[in-house]
Structures are given as C-alpha cells and as structure tokens.
Amino acid sequence: MDTLQAIVLAIIEGLTEFLPVSSTGHMIIASSFFGIAGDDFTKLFTIVIQLGTIMSVVVLYFKRFFQSMDFYYKLFVAFLPAVFLGLLLSDFIDSLLENPITVAVSLIIGGFILLKVDDWFGDGEQTEISYLTALKIGFFQCLAMIPGVSRSGASIVGGMTQKLSRTVAAEFSFFLAIPTMLGATVKKSYDYYEAGFQLSSEQVNLLIIGNVVGFIVALIAIKSFITYLSKHGFKIFGYYRIIAGIAVLLIHFFVQELTVI
To answer: What secondary structure, in 3-state letters, does the chain show?
Structure first.
C-alpha cells in the first residue's frame, strides 16, 4: 500500500462508515481494484482507520457522552451481540473479506430493503431507547458481519423496527459504532501481532494518515447525512446500493471473461 492508496481508502471509509451503504464493502471493492485486498496490512488498515471516524462522533456529540451512565449501559447491552458473534464467527467473517461477489449481492439486497424501509416503518415517534430496544439493535448490527450489509444501515433499520425516529436511530447507530469499532480494532491488531507481523515505520505513517483523513471526512459526512435523512429518508441510498452492486457484478464477470479470452 502506498500513500495515495491509503488516502483514497481513508476518504472512502470516512464517507461511507456512517451511511447505510457499507464501508467494508466499499473498502473491499477499492482495495481489490488496487490489487491489495489480500494483503494482511490492508486488512489491518481498513479496521484501524475506523478509530479516526469514531473520533468524529465523539467530537460532534461531545456533550451527549456526559449526560448519564445509563447512556453507557445501553451501549454496552447493544454491543454484546457483536462481541459474542464476532468471536464465534471470526474465521468465517475473514473468509468473506476478499470476496467482491458477496459485497455486490449484499449491496443489491440491502438496496431493495432501503427502498421500502420508509414505507414499512415510517419515521417513528419514539425517542427513548430501552434496554430491550438496545439489545435488538445490537443483533441487527450483527448482520453487518456479512460484507456489504452496512453496520449503520442494519442498526438504523433495527432502531426503526422499534418505532424510533430515523434521527434517533441514526444517532444511536453512531454511538454504537464506538465500542464496536474499538473492539474490532483491538482484536484485529492482536491477531496481526499474534501472526508474527510487525509494523514498519512507513506502515505506522500510513495508519496515522488514514485516521486523520477518515476523521475529517467523517465529520462532514455525519452532519450531511443526519440533515438529509431527517428530510428525505433512505430511498437514494437504496438506489445507490443497487446500482453499485450491479456495477461490481458486471465488472467482475466482464474482467473475468476478458481474462479467459
């Protein structure tokens, strides 16, 4: 991975992490395009730079983190399903991280769901999140262990099934990203070192660049997304996912066909 590739991947991460379009899916597509998807450092990089994006949530919602301990308890409850299923399915999840077809299919299916989710659940009136609701959202978030599903999309839809407003569901999804991504970063870093890999000074610099770029881009993306979502809903993201998924399938099979010829 070179510096330009690191910057491009970080921009993609910052733009897509909190949108219901799957940041992991886009990172897999981009890294496959660069020819570095199978590289162990690339896999570490795509996880670790999420720290920069979650810092944008802390900055934008700074006051919310000092309201009450109840806030943290509910995040912990919502985080638990990802802990157990993440550890249980770790190897299976890693096997999917190099597969653009999985991403494409997930993008398309998720796109059709987003086209209908506003009709199914509307913009709920519930603004308070109970512990049971937090747990249910946590299970919805686990669907994003399949690349291309979208962590934010799954957890927001999960909140909407519990009659939460789109804005409240989206903001809780942002907050839930913090323990989820932090946990994923710690685990991935541990696995990387356990496998005998060591970071070079160049790779450390790439991680720093990735986190800084991801942080700046995510700040802009979150504010824009909340404004748009509260007014217009999910349809545009559904259309985007379907188009992107079809494009990935066409490119994959077209390139494969050319290679055979």
So the answer is: CCHHHHHHHHHHHHHHCCCCCCHHHHHHHHHHHHCCCCCHHHHHHHHHCHHHHHHHHHHHCHHHHHCCHHHHHHHHHHHHHHHHHHHHCHHHHHHHCCCHHHHHHHHHHHHHHHHHHHHHHCCCCECCCCHHHHHHHHHHHHHHHCCCCCHHHHHHHHHHHCCECHHHHHHHHHHHHHHHHHHHHHHHHHHHHHCCCCCCHHHHHHHHHHHHHHHHHHHHHHHHHHHHHHHHCCHHHHHHHHHHHHHHHHHHHHHHHHHHC
